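ZP: hey, is the FE2/S2 (inorganic) cluster complex queued? I don't see it on the tracker
AM: it wasn't, my bad. submitting now with these inputs:
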Amino acid sequence: MPEGFDCSATCPWAVDRDPALGFPVGQVRRFAATNDDDLGDVDETKRNVLKLLAIGGLVGAGAGGLVGGALQYLQPPTVGLSSYPRVQLLDVDGGPLTVAKVEAEYNVGTSALYLFNYPLRNEPNFLLNLYPADGNPPGPSNPGAANVPSGVGTHGSIVAYSAICQHLGCPAPAIAFYPPGTCPQTPGGKSFYLHCSCHGSTYDATNAASNLTGPAVLPLPQVILEADPSGNIYATGMTPSSPPVNGHISTLTGDYGVGATSQVVKETPVILCSFPS
Ligand code: FES
């Protein structure tokens, strides 16, 4: 205290000070309670609120952990492939699919659908041979096509396109190949095409499955086919101009790969002759 300054009777901290408290103002002391009366009055409301907050915090932390864990399992893991595999195609009988077999058994007039999955298990594709059914070169009076973009085989007429519509994703058999003469009218004057019966989109089977009529605007993705010297057919990728398969962020993402081989399956198409001509 400064010399000459004495406020023992007037300073706020000295007024009514209990001389029994023999410690300076501001010092904290701990007293051992000997009974409940020594604890003095307790605000029960505050105590209960604190208890509730503590319990709530514990419950919240536990629930948060459970919800987080559950979300982890609800969210499907991202699966897929890092690059396009070389996959050998097998025919419906389980034997290797060869150019000779395709050219002998399938042609532009084949109405059944032949489908194989590639590159993922949930990505079906049409296998088509667009060469005329009579084996003669295509022409105005002989519907069919040869040397189509990315076609393989003797006539460049064997192609594969995604069998998932680029509009809202209707898969085969709702989207199907329509052989020549299937319907009285044709989209864009094409005598054969792929048509989705869900909302009417059509695609040009002879030109990389480009879109002919909407509501779809994108082409069907096209599978790159290759034949080895023995004529065995492989799927090796998707053409550079292909958009991702509908419903997939990328064609390589969204399911597991098909493995080393993929077998062709036969399906009956849904045919609906209702589209803009
Ligand atoms: S899903 Fe094919 S036209 Fe709509």
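AM: back. The chain has a mean pLDDT of 84.
ZP: great, adding it to the tracker
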